[in-house]
Amino acid sequence: MRRVFVSVLLLMLIGGAIVGGALRVEKGDYIIGKETLSPDVSAIIVVHDVTRMEADTKSLSYFLRHLEKHETVYYHVHDSALYSELAVGERVTIQPEGYTMLSSPVQKVAKTIIRHD
Length: 117
Fold this sequence. Notes:
The protein has 117 residues and is α+β, with helices and mostly antiparallel strands. A hairpin with a 4-residue loop joins strand 4 (91-101) and strand 5 (106-115). The chain has a 5-stranded mixed beta barrel with strand order 1-2-3-5-4. The protein has one domain (26-115). It has 4 helices and 5 strands. It has helices at 2-22, 52-57, 60-65, 80-85, and strands at 27-38, 41-51, 72-77, 91-101, 106-115.
């Protein structure tokens, strides 16, 4: 009887570890909006280090109100074809140019955009 109990307990622990690993939430940088700031400047709005669920369910105003938790950046995209292809909800990694525009929210120029979806 004790052997059966130990076996069942072991199976439950292993199963829980497998399910727990599958449910691990990966954070990333997600596009939560797109805007044309002027006739020459198009920007994607990216929130850094959030889950896909947060990116899909929370609004730009939420992220801007909670700047201490989430960095929200307007990235200027000079390539109009790439800008058109990028989609809200897409996970990206962005390498910015070497400077940041002092504004609120922060604005940077995207040097390289890596798409993960």
